[in-house]
Amino acid sequence: xxxxxxxxxxxxxxxxxxxxxxxxxxxxxxxxxxxxxxxxxxxxxxxxxxxxxxxxxxxxxxxxxxxxxxxxxxxxxxxxxxxxxxxxxxxxxxxxxxxxxxxxxxxxxxxxxxxxxxxxxxxxxxxxxxxxxxxxxxxxxxxxxxxxxxxxxxxxxxxxxxxxxxxx
Amino acid sequence: xxxxxxxxxxxxxxxxxxxxxxxxxxxxxxxxxxxxxxxxxxxxxxxxxxxxxxxxxxxxxxxxxxxxxxxxxxxxxxxxxxxxxxxxxxxxxxxxxxxxxxxxxxxxxxxxxxxxxxxxxxxxxxxxxxxxxxxxxxxxxxxxxxxxxxxxxxxxxxxxxxxxxxxxxxxxxxxxxxxxxxxxxxxxxxxxxxxxxxxxxxxxxxxxxxxxxxxxxxxxxxxxxxxxxxxxxxxxxxxxxxxxxxxxxxxxxxxxxxxxxxxxxxxxxxxxxxxxxxxxxxxxxxxxxxxxxxxxxxxxxxxxxxxxxxxxxxxxxxxxxxxxxxxxxxxxxxxxxxxxxxxxxxxxxxxxxxxxxxxxxxxxxxxxxxxxxxxxxxxxxxxxxxxxxxxxxxxxxxxxxxxxxxxxxxxxxxxxxxxxxxxxxxxxxxxxxxxxxxxxxxxxxxxxxxxxxxxxxxxxxxxxxxxxxxxxxxxxxxxxxxxxxxxxxxxxxxxxxxxxxxxxxxxxxxxxxxxxxxxxxxxxxxxxxxxxxxxxxxxxxxxxxxxxxxxxxxxxxxxxxxxxxxxxxxx
Lengths: 168, 571
Hints:
Largest sheet of chain A: 5 strands, antiparallel
Oligomer: heterodimer
CATH architecture of the largest domain in chain B: 3-Layer(aba) Sandwich
Radius of gyration of chain A: 19 Å
CATH superfamily of the largest domain in chain A: ACT domain
Largest sheet of chain B: 6 strands, parallel
CATH architecture of the largest domain in chain A: 2-Layer Sandwich
Number of strands of chain B: 20
Strand content of chain B: 15-25%
Shape of chain A: elongated
Strand order of the largest sheet of chain B: 3-2-4-5-7-6
Number of strands of chain A: 9
Helix content of chain A: 25-40%
CATH topology of the largest domain in chain A: Alpha-Beta Plaits
Number of domains of chain B: 3
Number of helices of chain A: 4
Order of helices and strands of chain A: EHEEHEEHEEHEE
Number of helices of chain B: 22
Structural class of chain B: alpha/beta
Shape of chain B: globular
CATH class of the largest domain in chain B: Alpha Beta
Structural class of chain A: alpha+beta
């Protein structure tokens, strides 16, 4: 909103239950681009319910913009439910595949790190390891920082996915 | 009712037959359209029904006509066009209907499903193109979903905040057969508009009303869409609040009522804009606080607590910070409010806001809308005479620009659905086809398009439609041989550099009307205005009335873009 430009930008994870129909993702993406909202990451896959997919979307904006984003998403006919995890306990994970140079002299060191980060090696060649790591964004960033000195060849990362915690 | 209609057993029907069955169920009596390759089957079936088809001369005419039909009648307008260019030609009109929340269902033809994506002849991804300017849209990929989709389309178009819905129909789907079983009421899990407002919020509003010393009601198109005019009048009388309206809200409140202040905003009245700035409670009903209304947002109604009632939650808090948001249908909300106020004993016996209303009367008297009629016809004079001669009973459509603003300022609308204009999109070429649609919906009313010489040329081809179907709309061209509103901005803000706004080379509109088989009339002097109007209104044919008006007349008051709404340039 125009008169509230100074408010702090906040990163927010939204979880949308949507009809699993062609064009749903285009509607969501088009809404964000058309109205000048940001998408930091986006993950879509089917759920256990027939014809329902879950879209996990990380976005940012001030309070009014986030409010508007949620309202606009709710307005889409194919969006069944919009959940905002702000202020509620939830778990969030990302997955990264990292192809790192693994010269013989560093192999043991890399393996130790893989172990510390509870990640796994899923492909091995004479010069490279491909490592699979899951965690929140901070963990993945930290892991990438540590692997950087060995030489990272390629990275593939997912956006975040999240679920609310059940009451204990 | 046959066994089949009861749903006891099903029958096999062709896609086009299923479509016609549902159009019939939805009460469609008129379709505005233009045929083409991809919709040949639909047309072949259509002419076997009793649905009236108005053949336009350009698809943009069809969509605007469906818009005018919907707004004049309160029913869903229907438009049928072919694939590719037929479909893309409707996009402007769809966007206009979307901005103004007009219920329309647009059927577009599409190439065979196996050709989709092949860049086939007259193929276009119209669902992709119209995604951001429809309320919802569909591509029917198999015959099994056809009936449901068409039913849903009508349901979505007319419910909640209304809007256009597009249904793309591939040719092979319409040619194939499927079991048909009548569908009951449509219920969508993911779409349930809020009609009934939250009672706590209403109680808050009642509290605010009781405390307010300078209340003001700001009415919008939502009042007209939900049919809440009667309730609005009762509400205003009960709380003794004056009423202003957005362009889309004209007609929602009777302009002949003493509580009426005139339109708000960029070309609003002095009185309405001053009242907005000075009020201590602003109750916006069925509005969206568009930038043409608010001017500078940070100073808009800065002394007021703002209450916003609207059925669309996204409208609330989008442009303006709201003190009390109320999501609900305007009519239901006002009905509930009125009965709550009744219980509170606010029966409207004595006037608690006399000082406020006196102040407003002062503003009204100080700077009324005005113009000076000398030797050359003033456009405002023409509009005033149209009002007087039709006694305010006409349906007025407009093009966009000065003609639109003069119509809004000088025709006093007493009834809802009597002013039809492209408000949000501001789409030139809208008024004439919209008038055709309105006239088809209301054959007994006099329908007048107040036009400019620039915008009338954008859809002038529809003269042929009006003549062919004997739709006796009246076009009053306020002919200043300029793109007047753009010229006015150039005069005020671009140092009178009239870049590309001089339209001196125009057709002879009288001869043009005659060439189409319509009637053409012209007034060049002020004393000719009334005789021309009288003659035009009595002819039972489409008429163009060409009024040669003062070339450089401006629309005033005017709030420069982005300024506070009290910073008005007056005449």
